């Protein structure tokens, strides 16, 4: 399936986001890739030298930045067909050691930033009868994780946001779904998460190997496709069979 959609990807220049950008570009789509690091976005542009890749540094927790990103999409293509919310942080920190500022920062990036990005891009979908939002959640919501109460709580909020937006915008042909991965090994995750956590995940999986960002791309591509026209408000757990239902 080759298309000419306009796809916005947040967290696009990191280890998690780059494979998503590559897949949509390979499909013929125009990708507006955003991340906080201008240097990382410049490297992404060098690695994927096509004019259908547009990069812009921004902070998803900033309403002004998100508005500027939406305006750029409007200028370049006049629409947004697909929004993939990947940007997030996942530190390990004991609950009693978290300051209020620690808590707010993680919730602000993982939950509020996702909501603000949706709010900025939805006006470019409404009225056209078609749109796709794919949020990256976490399978940790199903089981809880010691040392990540702020992160797991924020991702539980993303699940609620996904379902609420699916209800609110379904009549306009806009679907909103969530992918819930297990511990996904990126360079940042490898540094942030203790090796014991990563190894425990592998031991509990039916498919006993590390989960990679590439394992999530197919699910997002499906949710963004016409094949998923009648699917909304759903969670697809992609964790190698760690959680089964």
TrEMBL record:
It comes from the Bacteria. Keywords: NAD, Oxidoreductase. It comes from Sphingobium lactosutens DS20. GO terms for molecular function: oxidoreductase activity. SUPFAM superfamilies: NAD(P)-binding Rossmann-fold domains. The keyword Oxidoreductase applies. Residues 5-182 form the Ketoreductase domain. Belongs to the short-chain dehydrogenases/reductases (SDR) family. InterPro entries: KR_dom, NAD(P)-bd_dom_sf, Sc_DH/Rdtase_CS, SDR_fam. The keyword Ribosomal protein does not apply. This is Ketoreductase domain-containing protein. It holds the Pfam family adh_short_C2.
């Amino acid at each position: 399936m080759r298309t000419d959609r306009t796809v916005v990807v947040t967290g696009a220049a990191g280890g998690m986001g780059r494979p998503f950008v590559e897949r949509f570009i390979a499909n013929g789509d125009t990708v507006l890739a955003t991340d906080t690091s201008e240097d990382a976005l410049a490297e992404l542009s060098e690695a994927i030298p096509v004019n259908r890749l547009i990069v812009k540094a921004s902070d998803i927790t900033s309403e002004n930045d998100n508005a500027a990103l939406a305006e750029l999409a409007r200028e370049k293509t006049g629409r947004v067909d697909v929004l993939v919310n990947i940007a997030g942080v996942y530190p390990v920190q004991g609950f009693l050691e978290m300051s209020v500022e620690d808590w707010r920062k993680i919730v602000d990036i993982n939950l509020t930033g996702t909501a603000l990005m949706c709010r900025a891009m939805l006006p470019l979908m409404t009225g056209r009868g078609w749109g796709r939002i794919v949020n990256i959640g976490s399978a940790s919501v199903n089981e809880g994780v010691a040392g990540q109460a702020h992160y797991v709580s924020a991702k539980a909020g993303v699940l609620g946001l996904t379902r609420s937006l699916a209800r609110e915008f379904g009549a306009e042909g806009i679907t909103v779904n969530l992918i819930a991965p297990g511990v996904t090994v990126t360079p940042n995750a490898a540094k942030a998460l203790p090796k014991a956590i990563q190894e425990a995940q592998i031991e509990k999986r039916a498919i006993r190997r590390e989960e990679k960002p590439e394992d999530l791309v197919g699910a997002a591509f499906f949710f963004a496709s016409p094949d998923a026209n009648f699917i909304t408000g759903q969670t697809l757990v992609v964790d190698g069979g760690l959680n089964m239902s």
